[in-house]
Amino acid sequence: MLAKMNRSMFDALDDASLIWACVEPIIARMRGREHAVKESLYARLSASQRALMMFQVLRGHSSSGLEEFFRLVPYLPSHECIWQELQKAVKTFGDDAFAQLLREIEIEYQGNQGSNGDDILTKSSAYIQAAGEYDLLFRKAIAGADAIIAARIRSDWTEFVALQDE
């Protein structure tokens, strides 16, 4: 499931746009499908494509910051292992600092879940403290990861893109 584009488009895209261009065809094939179909499509991706997909899941579900992400975590497919998959994804691209930040956020998130399964938002003071401490770091990590991931895509483009004649 390689993204198709011509070389001039590939060269012209900024980091975030390049990431989206590479992952959008994958998302388009998964959108609206049953969970089993999504799992099957995900399993057929290369390790690099899976990492890119997980990064985009993180980005797409946290565009307004950690509050949005915390709110959506319980609804994500395979949410029980989402933290490990996200950490593995950013490590695949060599962003160990972001992986460590995700680990710290995971610990905070899990520590603030209620004993009856309530999510972090039901404990507003704990949530506000957690989000306040990590939100800015999280936003900076996302922006830094864009550059790291886009550099990887540009250097190992055959893992992500099928360049077409212009």
Describe the protein in words:
- There is one protein chain.
- With 166 residues, the protein is mainly alpha-helical.
- The chain has one domain: Up-down Bundle (A middle domain of Talin 1).
- The chain contains 8 helices and 2 strands, in the order βααααααααβ.
- The protein has a two-stranded parallel ribbon with strand order 1-2.
- α4 (47-60) packs across α6.
- The protein is globular, with a radius of gyration of 17 Å.
- The mean pLDDT is 84.
Q: Key features?
A:
166 residues; mainly alpha; A middle domain of Talin 1; two-stranded parallel sheet; 8 helices; 67% helix
Distance between the ends: 20 Å
Mean pLDDT: 84
Low-confidence stretches: none
Global Rg:
17 Å
The profile of the biggest β sheet is: 2 strands, parallel
Number of helices: 8
Report the order of strands and helices: EHHHHHHHHE
- CATH architecture classification: Up-down Bundle
The domain tally reads: 1
Instruction: Give the % helix.
Output: 55-70%
> What structural class do you assign from the helix and strand content?
mainly alpha
The counted number of beta strands is 2
- Which strand order does the major sheet show? 1-2
Percent range for β-strand residues: under 5%
Task: State the name of the first-level CATH class.
Answer: Mainly Alpha
Give the CATH topology: A middle domain of Talin 1
Please specify the SSE layout and strand pairing:
Elements: E1 3-6, H1 7-12, H2 15-30, H3 35-43, H4 47-60, H5 66-72, H6 82-92, H7 96-111, H8 124-155, E2 161-164
Parallel strand pairs: 1-2
Helix pairs in contact: 2-4, 2-8, 4-6, 6-7, 7-8
